[in-house]
Each structure stands twice: as C-alpha cells, then as structure tokens.
Amino acid sequence: MLKGHQSWIFENKPVIRSTATVVGPFEGRGPLAEDFDIVHGDSTLGQDSWEKAERTLIEEAAKLAIESGGLTKEQVQFYIGGDLMAQLISSSFAARTLSIPFLGVFGACSTSMESLALASMIVNSGSAKFALAGTCSHNSSAEKQFRYPTEYGSQKPPTAQYTVTGAGAALVSSEGEGPVVTSATIGRVIDMGITDPFNMGAAMAPAAVDTIEAHFRDLGVEPGHYDLIVTGDLAKVGYEIASELFRKHNIPMDQTEYSDCGMMIYDYEQQMVQSGASGCACSAVVTYGHLLKRMRKGELKRILVVATGALLSPISYQQGESIPCIAHAVSIEAGGVSS
Amino acid sequence: MLKGHQSWIFENKPVIRSTATVVGPFEGRGPLAEDFDIVHGDSTLGQDSWEKAERTLIEEAAKLAIESGGLTKEQVQFYIGGDLMAQLISSSFAARTLSIPFLGVFGACSTSMESLALASMIVNSGSAKFALAGTCSHNSSAEKQFRYPTEYGSQKPPTAQYTVTGAGAALVSSEGEGPVVTSATIGRVIDMGITDPFNMGAAMAPAAVDTIEAHFRDLGVEPGHYDLIVTGDLAKVGYEIASELFRKHNIPMDQTEYSDCGMMIYDYEQQMVQSGASGCACSAVVTYGHLLKRMRKGELKRILVVATGALLSPISYQQGESIPCIAHAVSIEAGGVSS
C-alpha cells in the first residue's frame, strides 16, 4: 500500500523465509566471516573468467536460499535480481540456469534493496506466494569494467572503495517463519556533481540522506523507531558526509545506532580497503548474513537498510559526466509466524 | 493478483492515462511516422554524443506523457524504466532530470513490457496512484556498444536488425480514461545456443513462444481471445521461426492476427533494415504510438504485446557465450472510464 509519496507499507507482512550468502576468500578473512553460508577459498571459483565466477556466486546463493526455504525452484514464481555488469549478465545467466520467471533490475549497489523492495511488494500484493531477490558482485569483474583490471595492480586513492566478491539472496514468502519486511522507500536520483569514480561514497551520501528523510516523512516515524539504521555502501568517507548532512537537516540520528555496511565487512587494520567496501553484494551479504543473524538471536528487533548506488557507467565517466546516485530503503522486523 | 504460475491479473484495471512517443529521422520516414508525437529531423538531437541524444529522447517522452496526462512530475510516484546502455545511463540520467523516485529495470528490448507490467502491478495493488513506464534506444549508441560504431559503415548480414532511435513512455494511473492494462506474464530466460549478435530474432523467438504459451496456460485463454498478438522485436527471421514453433506446439495462432513490432516500423522496400527493427524503443513506440492509436479509433479491442529481449553483453559475446533471451507479455483492452 502506498504510504506518503514514495513509500510502501507491507500490511500483509511478507516473510524472509530464508537467505543465503556466498563470498570470496578476502571477505572470508574479514570480521563477518562466520555469518556467511559459503566462503570460497579461490576467487575464480574454478571458472575461467571473472564474469563467470561472479555468475557462479549468485547461482549458488539463489539455489541455497531456495533449498533452505524448503522449496524447489519450480515453486518460486519470480526472481528479481541484478548486478553491476553491463546488461546484468551475471543475473541474466543465473536466471537461465534457475529457469524462474525473471525481472531484471538495476540500481548499482542499491540493487540489493531494490530487489528486496520489489519482491516484498509483489508478495504483499498477492502477486506471488514466493519471490526470490538476489544480487552479486565480484571485485575483479567490477574493477575491470569500471576502473582498471586488478591484474594491473594499480594504486588507489584513500577515498576508493573495495568491491565485495559475493552474492546474497532472500526468499520472500507470503507465509512461514522469519523476519518480516514491513516497508520500503524508493529513492530519487540525486547528483551533487561528483565526477570521481574513486570517490563514490561522497557521491552517494546525499542520496542516502534524501531517501532516509523521505522514509521518515512518508511513514511519520523518527530514527528512534529503529534499533539500527545502516546505509550501504558509503564506507568511511561517505559515512562522515552523511552524518554531517543528518545534522544539517536536523535528522536526530542520535536516537538510534547508525552504521554503514561498507564499514563492517572488512578489517581496516588487516585489510587494505581504503575507505571501505562497496559492490552490489556488500549490503546484500551484510544484511542477509550478519544483520538477520543478529535479528534471529534477538539482538535487533527493527532495522532500516538503506542501500546506495552510484549509477555511473564507464562511458558516462569517460564523457565527463557526474555520478547520479540513488538509495532505496527497506525496513525489516523480527517476526514470528505469519500466515 | 497472481494467476497461474507466472501471470498477474489486474482486477483494478489500471489505466494508460497518456503515452508519448519520440523518434528519430529514419523512423520518421517509415510507415508509422504519423503515429508518433515527436519526430526529430536530426539523429543527434543537437547533443554532442549518441548517448546524450538517447537520454534526450526518453526525457522528452517522459515529460510529454506526464503533461498529456494532465499531471506534474511531482505527482508521479514512481518511474520504472531502463534501456540498452550499460548501467542504464539513459534512464538513470533521465530519472535525475525528472526527480521522480526511480526503479531501474532491464530486460534488453523486453524492457518496454517489463516496465509496463511492473507499473501496472504497482498501480493495481494500490502501491501508487500514478506510475510512469518508459524506455528508449538509439541506433548509433546501441551499434557502438554492441557491434561497430555506425561511423565505420560496416556491412551487415540479412539476419541483422536495425535498432530503433526513439523512446516511448506510458503513464499508468489508478483512475481516469484510456486503455486498460488487464494482465501480464513475466517470462523465463530461454537460451537455444545462438551466439550470433547479428541474428537476435532467431535467439529470441523461443522465448516469445515460451511466454505466450505460459500466458495462455495461466489465464486459460486461447489466441482468439485477442484481436491482435504482437511480438517485438523478432523481425522477419524471428517471426518465421516463432510461427513455425507455434505450429509445432499446437498453439492455434490462426485464431487471431499475429504480427511483430520489428516488421511494422520501417518500409522494407525503401529502408535497408535487413530482417527488420529492434531496440528497446521499437515495441514501445509501436505499442504506445501505433497500436494504442488503433485502439482509440476502435479498430482493436484487446491486444497482447509480447516484448522480447536478447540479454547479451559485449563481454558475454566476446567470451563466446550464447545469447539468453526473455519475453514479457502485457494485455491491453480498450477501456472507458475507470475509477
């Protein structure tokens, strides 16, 4: 149901019946390693290209989420997914393997919550019993596409972010047990004129703040409504800018815990990741792996995940364009049995 | 509402309140020229890159559709759009200009009906009063990205298709006057092993047939339910393959008129377009321009538009992958006043 101008309230309480997270070896050395379902020891995943490795990540996550939910892929009505690769080849090829009716979506790193928002809306409205939301990224395929192949070993400025190698999938269901998706706010595209693809946190921070403001306005709530609000992935540089913007806009974020997925998955002291993490998979694996695990343990009751995306392409950057950004917010509550 | 396994019935009858179509000069010399709202005389649209020209097409179409619907852009809750460009830059940059909450979607040339299906589902479920669906393509930006820059003047085989320069947008509304969107069927990804990006019609035909079969199965109807079924864009080569597959699968398409958007927009005798037309804009401008005009004149009562997409990327092609394809179907009926 529409609430305010750009938010949905899910009055039928779609359930996250199961999730799956798959990551690469570098993520397996970070502080959240224990929260992921599969940690690969080899970032090629035994494939002969980075692109095929990326596709394998999402294929594994999708299959595992469906199995953990006690379903077969034939029972899942819709797969809503996307990734960073041009023409969403990772997700499209995975959709071929899965053979589930497919809705390709793209919001760069906000794809995690764009797909979860849509899957929840589809289930909430009775347009599906079971819908799968998923996304993936691979450090080497993303660097190759957007900046320089990792094989070059090029240096990066301190504002740069490290694309997560991983995939996260969530099976949303009209009934069952699990955390409940309660609302979503769809973001506008915001562009503050940043043109440096090595400083995406700064570009994305205003989009995160815009969506969070819209969420509070539409739902008539304040930050204290949530135990935790996470953006993802602004990383350190963007997090500081967002925090400053919250103060300027008089948004009382001190009512709650505010963190960023891009600051949680790697160990800044042991792992050289500059400003922090990014990539479609970052907010997906942090949310579906780490945060929902904390919710199941009873540590969190109500969270707001605000995934942020930088909508640049190699061509738009080469043509001197600035970086339009977007953020989509989804609220999740610890749930019991829904029916 | 879910109907069958992969279809939605829109029981609240979302209305296509207004549409807009914008095309380039080559489309303006074709047989449907009179049906388009804006025909540009210069394929650069006065911009300094093909990419910016493409973005201008969708910006114009979106603004015109909103104006024709008697709304301001501030009243439109969601813009659901995508295009062929990597990272959907045409749509993302247009969403920045429009400042409407944005859901990026990608289904290659099926994006026209993916976006209309989602916009209709969102409005039908009460998740929006007004949602805009739109897509665009530009011949020169697409050729440059997927094959060779048009400036090279390279030759093409007879199976090749000519990407339409244009954009189409539809404003879907919970009330008002106009054609009504009655159902949608979301397609699976089908891949028959075709690897030639100059023969996309052959690759896409099986996906079109799969979705059409699913549509009839889910809704319990036969082809005769519709006055017209159009695929888009299989063009001549794909149309013949699809027709053969309908016969093999015993689908009685002779009950209705069956055509293809890729065979309608150009004049085969006067315009050198090989197998016919393609591109995100093709099915969008043929549907929103030509077919809905025929519906308003009373010539068509009930149509099924089955937009087909080839989900390849330049990288997947260079790595020797085959072309996964998809098709999404949307049914539209001549409507009176809905409320």
TrEMBL record, chains A, B:
InterPro entries: SpoVAD (IPR010894), SpoVAD_sf (IPR038369), Thiolase-like (IPR016039). Pfam families: SpoVAD (PF07451). SUPFAM superfamilies: Thiolase-like. NCBIfam families: PRK08304.1, PRK12404.1, spore_V_AD. This is Stage V sporulation protein AD. The gene is spoVAD.
